[in-house]
């Protein structure tokens, strides 16, 4: 399973990368705005800074919602670095743009997926990744994890190469359940990745080992 970090914050990306288990980064316009990044040149420079930290898979989202605009913007984003994956919303022109980028060898991440039919269309268009939003479905009393299960099943049925990138992951159990289901990737905040390390019995067990060692050494 690949771990992506869902942030545009460079310090958090560095911290996750330094842990040695990070496979990529997802951003969206809200996350970029949270870091105070705006204006074409600053946005591109920020994506470049992210690419310089990680090994691959930096999702950069287009703002345009028309086909020509998405193609123009996506090509500009793809030029920043080979690590860029162009993030395209699940709308009609977005599907057409994914198809075009696929034919040109540009990787895409189809975002804002809330239903299995949307994921099926994105795979048929040749998306590299689809991003179903688990937490946002849970927020409105739908089962986000069930959607992951449905998409994984559909892709297996037909052997689609599109990877299921579980997004809007809010806590460690979301991530663990996605791993059980077989999602290819989970993108989540830093606290979810670091949260996986924690167990109170690990902490108390380590404390006991160190105390016993000190006692035996006469300290
Ligand atoms: C990532 O690709 C998504 O934009 C992100 O996971 C959405 O997460 P949120 O629902 O916590 O905003």
TrEMBL record:
It is found in: Cytoplasm. It is an enzyme of class 2 (transferase). InterPro entries: Aldolase_TIM, TAL/FSA, Transaldolase_3B, Transaldolase_3B/F6P_aldolase, Transaldolase_AS, TSA/FSA_arc/bac. The active site is at residue 87. It catalyses: D-sedoheptulose 7-phosphate + D-glyceraldehyde 3-phosphate = D-erythrose 4-phosphate + beta-D-fructose 6-phosphate. GO terms for biological process: carbohydrate metabolic process; ketone catabolic process; pentose-phosphate shunt. Coiled coil: none annotated. Its main location: cytoplasm. Keywords: Cytoplasm, Pentose shunt, Schiff base, Transferase. Its EC number is 2.2.1.2. Pfam families: TAL_FSA. Pathway: Carbohydrate degradation; pentose phosphate pathway; D-glyceraldehyde 3-phosphate and beta-D-fructose 6-phosphate from D-ribose 5-phosphate and D-xylulose 5-phosphate (non-oxidative stage): step 2/3. NCBIfam families: fsa_talC_mipB. Transaldolase is important for the balance of metabolites in the pentose-phosphate pathway. Belongs to the transaldolase family. Type 3B subfamily. This is Probable transaldolase. It comes from Mongoliitalea lutea.
């Amino acid at each position: 399973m690949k771990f992506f970090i869902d942030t545009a914050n460079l310090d958090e990306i560095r911290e996750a990368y330094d842990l040695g288990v990070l496979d990529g980064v997802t951003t969206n316009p809200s996350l970029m705005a949270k870091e105070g990044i705006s204006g074409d040149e600053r946005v591109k420079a920020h994506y470049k800074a992210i690419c310089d930290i990680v090994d691959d898979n930096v999702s950069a989202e287009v703002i345009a919602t028309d086909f020509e605009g998405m193609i123009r913007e996506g090509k500009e984003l793809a030029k920043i670095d080979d690590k860029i994956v162009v993030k395209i919303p699940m709308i009609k022109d977005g599907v057409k743009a994914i198809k075009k980028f696929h034919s040109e060898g540009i990787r895409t991440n189809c975002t804002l997926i809330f239903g299995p039919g949307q994921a099926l269309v994105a795979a048929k268009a040749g998306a590299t990744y689809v991003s179903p939003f688990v937490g946002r479905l849970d927020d409105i009393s739908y089962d986000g994890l069930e959607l992951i299960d449905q998409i994984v099943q559909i892709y297996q049925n037909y052997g689609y190469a599109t990877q299921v990138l579980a997004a809007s992951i809010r806590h460690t159990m979301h991530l663990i359940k996605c791993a059980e289901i077989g999602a290819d990737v989970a993108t989540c905040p830093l606290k979810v990745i670091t949260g996986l390390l924690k167990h109170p019995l690990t902490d108390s067990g380590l404390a006991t080992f160190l105390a016993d060692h000190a006692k035996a050494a006469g300290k």
